[in-house]
Amino acid sequence: MIRKPPRSTQSRSSAASDVYKRQCLFHSVILERKKFGPLGFNIPYEFSDNDFDVSKQTLFYLLDDIDEDVPFNSIIYLIGGINYGGRVTDNWDRRCLIALLQKYFNNDILFGEATFSSIEEYDYPNSFSIE
Q1: Which of 32, 1, 13 is nearest to 110 (CA)?
Q2: What predicted TM-score, i.e. pTM, was given to this entire model?
């Protein structure tokens, strides 16, 4: 069952803003994983800012006309399967990429219930701006 946030507390622009912030965090995690060599990914991939820019444009396109539901499955497929995933050739790396995307892009972010870890210091920052 897909839960929808109450109309009065969650506007379209704030939902889109949360998704954009998650894209920034996802991109930074992917770039950090590259630094660990074979511990980060089995094969070295050349993820770059171009991947981020294309994903950002994809999000703008998908979130421009949303009514109530954020299309998280489409976001995960397009970003994980095409934008970043187009470079990924190893099946385990692809699974890792999709698992990270599922952690970053889900309905819980619209309710403020999303966490990345049970340790509070590694939680999603609720207030920061992209400027």
Answers
A1: 13
A2: 0.76
Looking at residue 108, the DSSP 8-state letter turns out to be H
CA separation for the pair 87, 96 (Å, rounded):
13
3-state secondary structure of 80: helix
Contact 46, 87 (CB under 8 A): yes
Token pair for residue 32?
């950090």
Mean pLDDT split into 10-residue runs, the chain, 131 residues = 43 73 88 86 89 90 76 88 88 91 81 67 60 55
State the DSSP code for 82: I
Q: Which candidate, 2, 34, 48, 30, places its Cα nearest to that of 100?
A: 30
Calculate the alpha carbon distances from 61 to 8, 45, 57, 127 in Å: 24, 26, 6, 24
